[in-house]
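Internal tracking record. Fields below are filled automatically when a chain is submitted to the structure queue. Please do not edit lines marked as system-generated. If the sequence contains nonstandard residues, flag them in the REMARKS field before resubmitting.
Queue: standard
Priority: normal
Entity type: single polypeptide chain
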Amino acid sequence: METLMHTCCAPCSVSCIHQLRGEGIEPVSFWYNPNIHPYQEYKARRDTLMAYAPAIGMILEGLPAGETIDMAALQTFLDRRAPGRNDWSTPRKEADQPEFLSGLVGNVTCGAPLTAIIRNTNTRSGDYDGLSVVPRPGHADYTAGVKYGGHADFAGGGAFSGRLTAPLCIAGGICLQLLKKQGIEVISRIASIGSVEDVTPLTVSTADKPFPVVDDAVGETMRAEIAAAKAEGDSVGGIVECAVLGLPVGLGGPLFDGMEGRISSIVFGIPAVKGIEFGIGFGAARLRGSENNDPFVVENGTVRTTTNHCGGILGGITNGMPLTFRAAFKPTPSIAKEQQSVNLNTLTPEILRVRGRHDPCIVPRAVPCIEAAAAIAVYDALLGQS
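SYSTEM-GENERATED OUTPUT FOLLOWS
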């Protein structure tokens, strides 16, 4: 049994937690205390609580009962996103092993909301001290500080941290398994890093590759681009391409129920995403209608198109062709290079050099995040029409 417990600080909650656990009740702490002043007191209480209960998590509702989840496959998927596994990611290491608190009985969904957490085991919150006063250019430090009246959580990036894509991948990894049972596959790859592009068509999964590109030779050049940025204390961005194969005709709807909107709303929840395009996207604006339109044909009794400029979606509704899109990721804002910022207390210029452990390029680790976002959107749409 679980119970939600409002918590104002770690010390005063410890005795309550021990008492509840002694009675077979697992407490889930909820931190929301905008009334605590001054900010130093608020921060001290929050940081102590985070040290006591360092975890991230998610709740996935609406899953049908009776679905078996392959935990080994889920962990393999999460490992693709996990930090500290190679030279092109942050040196921070986390196991990223999910703990399921509800929704499963013997790895089988039971119809209740599925709740899971991942415990953080390698945090260094002190690296983020001072960012509420001297914000990082390109990051949400300034806007979050203003919006939340100085109470925003800056430790580890808070609600704007890429770390929160780990719970996204729990949900997405489960949806990927459920889609596969219906003959639907989600594949993706790195399409570009900086100015280096992989133009080979995406037709098969790259999930088994440490560096998920189609053309491995181009991948080596991309890795060199990341290494060069890292050596200069800088970062580099890129593009992830994704395709959903095996979709039926008729999924989605017009206006706000369209598949583009469903997918985009989740993709933009991934930190650092700055743009998305479906099919040839903005390239369609440079064509005439006769060039952009995908001609219809009949193949083996099925209506298909000879090209797929629309990315498998017409009027927000899938047309049976592969659903394709590309998401653009900005370079990581947290870089070792000195950057111009301002001191928000004195309103004077100040040079900032970010401390901590950060990815020189988040694109390789973002590939499974994009797959997760697509899987959640597609599976949710399928449930909605069943």
